[in-house]
Amino acid sequence: EAQVTQNPRYLITVTGKKLTVTCSQNMNHEYMSWYRQDPGLGLRQIYYSMNVEVTDKGDVPEGYKVSRKEKRNFPLILESPSPNQTSLYFCASSPRLDSYEQYFGPGTRLTVT
Amino acid sequence: SQQGEEDPQALSIQEGENATMNCSYKTSINNLQWYRQNSGRGLVHLILIRSNEREKHSGRLRVTLDTSKKSSSLLITASRAADTASYFCATDNYGGSQGNLIFGKGTKLSVKP
């Protein structure tokens, strides 16, 4: 089944404890992206990747890191999480840059205390 | 930066009625997309309309695009309770970083049986 998977789906952590949210797609998509969703703010793009080893900042990259060492995986890293990073996170992928239609993962609900 | 802004923020209708949602954006675009999100879940792509298109249909969905007014509308005809969801428009960042997609804050649609 073609899909985007994220792990974990739910995570409660403490300030400053490094964490990684994994994202994987099995559709051989070139483009992958991370978003956070907050009440009243909609979805905001954190980072995106056009292909392996090619990443770029979105609108709210501060406090996050990403890597794209393999085409299928695009992990989101929070080196030192803070409470303002409590949010619902979505990973998405797209077949090609010019197609733009994105396939979303199920989301990861992160709480930082 | 928020580009797409949906209107209204919330819409409540009876089953069988039509639902119209609007999206306004600020800069030139290559294309505009509409997505649906059921509560707390990943977004699902509905339809993409390119900047040189004025109208597009997909099943009960009709999307229009007016680039002179920088606006788009999504019409759902003969609505069903299952259409209850939040709807988002998304635009690319024309002239900016490729791959930077900008989502609006969404319209929450409630269809009552």
Provide an overview of this structure.
The complex is a heterodimer of chains A (113) and B (113). Chain A has no helices and 11 strands. By secondary structure, chain A is mostly beta strands. The mean pLDDT of chain A is 93. In chain B, strands 2, 4, 5, 9, 10 and 11 form a 6-stranded mixed beta sheet that branches. Chain B has a 5-stranded antiparallel beta sheet with strand order 1-3-8-7-6, with no helix packed on it. Chain B is an all-beta fold. Chain B has strands spanning 5-7, 10-14, 19-24, 31-37, 43-50, 55-58, 61-66, 71-76, 85-92, 101-103, 107-112. In chain B, a hairpin with a 4-residue loop joins strand 7 (61-66) and strand 8. Chain B is globular.
How are the secondary structure elements laid out?
The complex is a heterodimer of chains A (113) and B (113).
Chain A: E1 4-7, E2 10-13, E3 19-25, E4 31-38, E5 42-51, E6 54-57, E7 65-66, E8 76-78, E9 87-94, E10 103-104, E11 108-112
Parallel strand pairs in A: 2-11
Antiparallel strand pairs in A: 1-3, 3-8, 4-5, 4-9, 5-6, 7-8, 9-10, 9-11
Chain B: E1 5-7, E2 10-14, E3 19-24, E4 31-37, E5 43-50, E6 55-58, E7 61-66, E8 71-76, E9 85-92, E10 101-103, E11 107-112
Parallel strand pairs in B: 2-11
Antiparallel strand pairs in B: 1-3, 3-8, 4-5, 4-9, 6-7, 7-8, 9-10, 9-11
Shape of chain B: globular
Total E-strand runs of chain A: 11
Helix % of chain B is: under 10%
Kindly report the greatest chain-chain contact and the residue count on each side: A-B, 30 and 26 residues
